[in-house]
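Review form for a predicted model. The reviewer records the input and the model, then writes brief findings.
Reviewer: anonymous (R2)
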Amino acid sequence: MIQPFYCYIGILLSFTMSLWLFATGKLDAKTYFYAPLGFLIAYYTLLAILQDKQVYRPRCLRQVLPKAIGKYLMWGLVLWGVLYLYKRHAMYNLMTPHTRVFLDHYLRAFLVVGLPYFVLAEKKRYCLENVLSDPYVKLRLLLRDLWRRRFKQAGHRLTTQRYRRTYLMAILRIHYIPIMVEQVHLGVTQTTTFAQNPNIQWSLLTVVGAVTILCWLVDSNNGAMGYFWESCFTKTRYRDVDPHAVHWLVVLMCYIPFIAYAQDFIPFPSLPGNSILLIDHAIMNRAIEVAMLIALVIYVISGCALNFSTSNLSYKKIQTCGPYRIVRHPATVCKLIVFALAFFRFRGAFTPGWTLCYFAWCSIYICRALVEERFLRRFSDYQDYMKQTPYRFIPGLI
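Model under review:
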């Protein structure tokens, strides 16, 4: 796992470059809103290559070319198929307008550089671990069984853990990529609109608002990167995915469109109907806003430290440094603090119904952390991490 310091440097560089290109007009923010995502992936790829000390098996061009062509064709069809799904499916068509722009640009770039990339990957990153985790190899074995009419063996393959992991990962990424990419577009739009406003009157409230927008943009950019990018050069392939339906039910309640269905039963209490502030004192309310901002910044810092391991209920690598040296779920703690400060500053929050809603949603987010931990503790490196960092949420308590 990359040290958090290098993660923070990469995020700073990627957003500085992107916002400068947007501000100077060299890139259109509406069309190329995904620039921070691209720069951050490029940074992590370069860093991973420089830090990679593993010895790989050398191969000649004749050995790698057939497989490289096969992978190029397979992933090209996958990208086209996902784009087609997003266009034709009613729900995804509605929720993926900017994701389709992003994937369309990515597919065009893939058609140009995809084959050289796979040739280079097969030539320079060939090892048993990469072969066993390669979806192309699994698909080729499955198609071979079907071609030879070994239907029973093909059916058996589909029920094994390796194959279940592959199609679970596919479903996971197809659903979550547009959620995160659309949030990146929203964050870039808000950030550039704010920066281009000539009538900004700077104050503490303005600074808090600007940093809040930027924090959510950084957070969604990290999430988009974690779900979207998988490469043998960055060693970011999914090693496992939680197959338990109940665990996924808890997690999906925290994201659209399922959060909208959940709100029919438990209204999300971030904006109570009564918007009268509990404390009618300007300085105290500014202090609450600053406290919210500090908690939000720590939340984003925690997410940034995960680099490619931000996806839900999946196992890539375990981060044990930075905020994760103190507690195992710093992001969850900080998010709940932000929710509490944003909610209980209003008088309307102090009713039995709204208070119950708040604690119900807190319980969902806590359960989300617990089911994630229940899945991860199957792996030895997470068991070692639990011994190193014994507290989940609050140092010295729980």
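Findings: The chain has a mean pLDDT of 87.
Further findings: The radius of gyration is 23 Å.
Recommendation: see findings above.
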